[in-house]
Amino acid sequence: MELQDLERIDIHQLPHSLQMLVQCLGIEHAYNLTCAYGGRPKYIPKHRERTTLAEVMPPAALDALIKHYAGMALEIPKVDHFLRQLRNQQIQRESADGLSRSMLANKYGLSLRQIGNIRRLEACAPHGLST
Which of 22, 67, 117, 129 could pair with 30 in a Cys bridge, judged by C-beta atoms 3.0 to 4.6 Å apart? Predict the structure, then answer.
C-alpha cells in the first residue's frame, strides 16, 4: 500500500486502540505494525534489542512505541480496519461515478444491502471523502 493511500484514512473512524498507535507511530508505521502482527498480542520490551519489532519498524518508531508501551502486551489491531475504510471509499467513488449497487456488489463480493449501507454510512460520515 502506498503512503498516499494511507493519507486518505480518516483516523477518527479507526478503533481507539489503533488511533493511539497512529498517534504514537504515525500512520505508515502503525499500518506496517498491523500488517506484521495484527490480531495477535505483542509484548513491547523495555529495550529495542530484545524484540523482533525492529524488523518491521525503523529505530525512531520503535523507540516511540517503547516509550509509550514498554513492559506491556499490546493486542495489535488487524490491518482490516485500514483496508475496509479504503475499500469503502473506493465504493463511494465508484458509486458516484455511476456504478450500480449490483455491479459494486459483484466487484467487491458484498451483498446489495452491504453496498447500500456503505453508500449511506460513508455519505453521512462527518469527515467524508476528501477528493
Answer: 22
